[in-house]
Every structure is written in C-alpha cells, then in structure tokens.
Amino acid sequence: MSRRPMVRPGGRSARVQESVHTAVRELTAEVGRDALTVPMIATRAGVTPSTIYRRWGDLQELLSDVAVERLRPEAPPEDLGDLARDLTAWAEQFLDEMSSPPGRAYIRDALLGDPDGDNAGQCSAYAAEQVDVILARAADRGDAPPALETVVDRVVAPMMYRILFRPGGLDSAYARRLVAGLLGAQDR
Question: What are the pLDDT digits (tens) for 33-61?
Fold first, then answer.
C-alpha cells in the first residue's frame, strides 16, 4: 500500500505527523534503525499502529517520509558574494552532509520507501532549489551563471553517484574540482 503524497498538513494531522516523526528520530537514536517497529513508534508517538499504517502504509514508507523531511535544507545557501565561492561552499556542505553516515542512511531510506519516485523527486527539488538561489544571486550581481540543469548534471549528479556507488575519496577537494570544472568549462 503506497501512502498518499503529503503536503504539510495542518491541525491534528500536523500534530500526528510531527509526533510520529519525532518518535522515529528519538527511537532511532535510542535503539537503532534496525530495531524500529510500527507498534514501538506508535506507542512513543501516542497514536495507534493503525494510524501509522493508514497514513504511511508500512514502516519503510514512514522511514522514507522522515528521511525526506530530514534532507530538507534548513536555511538558504550562504551568500559569499561570488558565484564560484557560493557554489563551492554549497557543494562542499552538500557533499559533507549527504556522504556522512546519517546522510547516507537518509538517502537510502528516502529511496527504499518510495515506490512511485515522489520522495526522490522531492530530494532532487531540495538541491535544485538551493542551487537556483545561488544562480539567481549570481545573475542579480550581473554574472552569467550556468543553467540549473547544467549544475545538476555536472556537480550534483556526480556527487550523488559517488555517494551511492563509489563512496571513497569524497572530500571537499572533490566538490571543489567539480565546481571548478563546471565554471572553467563555462568560460571556454
């Protein structure tokens, strides 16, 4: 059973979502992700297991929903006054967060409980929104930034591929090389 796409609900629905998400985060920290069960989460959240099953379908879809929420950026990217510095700082932070053990776990959960691809699309949209802010700032300063999809293809996609399939050698220097390669190719 696949859950319905969820926008930020209001009222009781928002309280249920928040209490269940909080229970998942707390219990993951206390007992570990592999020990989680729907009844355990329901008890901690103060809801019935049927509430969780009705809303999320199963444990994996709940974990996916929590992961997507955890992958949501908390703030706009830093404005350092220059496209290269802004994009490099963002790429370094993105790579650091996504390649960390918690980041990898969130990515895995977001994808595993996502039968229709909505969560993967939302995670992609988060990154694209952040990059778009950086590109808009550059354009406002009179720069000629690359297209959003070019940045996604040349910076974000290689980082995600490496995080998922070839995690060795992921450091700030890798993120800097990707951005430098993108911006250097743009100048040609």
Answer: 889 999 999 999 999 999 999 999 999 99
Instruction: Give CA–CA dist 121/39, Å, rounded.
Output: 29
Measuring CA to CA, which residue among 140, 145, 137 is closest to residue 186? 145
The superfamily CATH assigns to domain 11-57 is: Homeodomain-like (1.10.10.60)
**Domain map (residue ranges) of the chain:** 11-57, 71-187
- The highest-level CATH class for domain 71-187 is mainly alpha
H-type alpha helices, the chain = 11-31, 38-45, 49-56, 59-71, 83-99, 101-112, 118-140, 148-151, 157-165, 172-187
Whether 77 contacts 86, CB under 8 Å: yes
What is the model's pTM? 0.82
CA separation for the pair 182, 179 (Å, rounded)? 5
